[in-house]
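Why DUF1800 family protein? Reviewers of the renewal asked for a concrete example.
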Amino acid sequence: MATTSEPMVSLQKPLVLFCLLVFSFSRTHAELDKNANSQSDIWELHFNAFNLTPGLDADNDGYSNLQEATSGTDPFDPTSLPQLKIEADGSSIHTFWSTLPGKRYRIDTSETLLPNSWQPLLTITGTGEETELPLDLADPRHFYRLSVSNLDSDADGLSDWEELTLGLNPFSSRSDRLDTTDFQQINTNWNTPSTVTIGVLDQSMREDWPNNGLIAIRRSGGIQPLTVFFTIDGSAARGSDYTTLPTNQITIPLNTREVWIEFIPVPDTDPEATETITFTLQPGTGYTLGAATSTTLNLHDTSTQPSPQAAARFLLQAAFGPDSAPVGPDTIPPNVQDVITRGFSGWITHQFDRPIGYLQPYVDWAVTGNAANSAGLYGNYKQFAWWHRTMGSNAIPSISFAAQDPDPLRQRIAFALSQILVVSDRPERLIVQHQGMANYYDLMVKHAFGNYRDLLYDVATHPAMGIFLSHLGNRKANPVNRIYPDENFAREIMQLFTIGLWQLNPDGTRQLDPEGQPIPTYDNGDITELARVFTGLSFGDSNVFNAYSDVFTMPMKMWDAEHDCDPKLLLGTHPLPARTPSPGNTGTAGLADVNAAIDHLFNHPNVGPFIGKQLIQRLVTSNPSPAYINRVSAAFADNGSGIRGDMKAVIEAILLDPEARDPAKMSDPTWGKLREPFLRVVNFARAFNARSTSGHYPLDQFTTDHLQDPMNAPSVFNFFLPNHSPPGPITEQNLVAPEFQIINASTAITGPNYFWNAINGSLHRFGNGTAAYNVRLQSDTELGMVVNPAVINQDTPSAANALDPDPLLRRLDLALTGGTLSPHQFQIIREAMLRIGTGTWQWHRQRLRLAIYLIVTSTDFNVQR
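Here is what the prediction returned.
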């Protein structure tokens, strides 16, 4: 152990405190030292400090080269040293020193300097920040000593500082999950020659979309820093058509296997044909060239049509993501091409004209005459129907309604609305009502492109809602018999379906009173008053009020004899007159009240910003700007023709808004949303054209793994609250992330496990006993990009049939993440695939399964940007 001393420091307070600063450097054997000079080879490489004699002091700062190596400081910089400082401000005294990540620092104290008198005062692991320690002034004299040593937390033979410098994990002896330890890998490859190749992560770019061309330069073998040379040619001009590195060389850093070179288009106003950029590796010192040394990128001009990435991103917002592409590594999926061809607005207009894809016809077929049971098709028929419509299937020729064009925009909007105007099958009365629940959901489907006012009325008078929020069979008040109207639906139609809890400005911000407090939209008296409106409603097929019925496919009827026909005052300002009851179940008076109440709530200025914001959250981003909400609110208030509540205008305002379409938003850390767990499954299914041989989709039970299923919310408050904010940075920035409410310690495991099981088997949670009903991914096209398509059915194809993984990953990137897969994720997935050896049983299938799994469990897939 070597030590050095600093002069004693005298401080008055009021006695003299003597502080002797003693530095102790302790080496460990947890270092790479191939040249056996007691100094870490990694430290020598890091500071270009080769051939330094350990006992000398290259920068004359008072510390030997060996001491600098132990402390991790620069031997050529006299200001880089383990310096312990002491300061006093008249009332206190403290010592402080700089730290490096992975080094251990210990402060010892002594009153006498005798060898056995030193006592440890503080031991810490360095963080890279300066550390401060208050000193004890109770005794007139103290001496302090700083010790610096190495750690080897994972006991693999490399110190923590070395591992951090190499980019390894100091807490795992096998950072890259290889068969050998980190030390063995570094020791073996320290002087190994490198072989350099190139790969293509993004081959096509456009002047008006920030999807830059991206090339990977990869090396195998060595780990020391390496400078690689290349040339760039082609019809595109460097500097005027695109920008990239200023020189024709790049350095691969220490222990780095892959670096990336971006090609950034330079927009111009001159129409041009597609130009090319040819990139070619050149020989250099310290490496040899591998097989792949040249590639060509395509630079496209600005276009009025969306790029493939822009179209794929749009479909993640407006539908259920890209479909499966039929052939080729860079083939554009059909629905992505449809968006490109029609443009965003044209695609939306085309969707508005599609036939309506209702759920109930399928459920009617399944239930009527026991058809489904006769076919051995058991389960949740309304969810089977949901999947059938969402997947756009017309593969059941025996069912007349099946052959119908898919309507993904309508279905996506309906799913969003179903999470605002919630009815769930959790109650026992509703869980067995497959037809009735499908009929209620079809209100969302029907009115997705209609008027929100009409949807409100149909929701208020539907028996499924009447059961769920308990206003079916609601009688007018009879104080003598202690009968009072149920207030459940009255409360929720205000709180959740129309106006919310607080008065809002058109941009969604809260209005404030003179004291700066938010203004409530209603109070308990308003709930009680509105509950009187929703009295007298009962089953539509009954001739007796409040008679039990199983008919949930007819709107409720009004019985004026059970309706409160007295005058009412809504929200404290809007009077409803006394009504004259009509005989029997004609319901003229009661329905007049219902319509008047619906009209009053619908015309409240809160509805546009309140509902508009939630639809933005479900489709585009969790934290829309006030300006974005204001534009959507304005479209709700007036579609341009004086019509309020036009859902087509609202949908266009949401999906075509500059913020929704601006690609720059993808790099904004506050933009986007956590994708709903269930919708991830749907995107996953569509990306691989999942289907059963029968054409049916008998899928349900997704709440088990994902806490989410259509029509299965745990309460009227949906699966998650629109203002939910998980603890941590999101809350600290006053942001919300609703979907995180159903990401917990359980679903964080069951969700990824579901995907792994689905990739390896079927999309069913518990399987399906009938082979024809097993819904599986159709991935032969992708499998033919892992290995020569001619041998995909072999159990163990020869290694000669293996194909470059890059085209496959580009395809999966577009289909699953909309082209946003990060280069680092691309590298991780590619390398993980290639670790499955070609001698492994069904290695080609295992590689594909792993690639899909790693993407669908990545942040790039789980976060919609």
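The first helix runs from residue 41 to 46. This is the kind of structural detail the renewal will allow us to pursue systematically.
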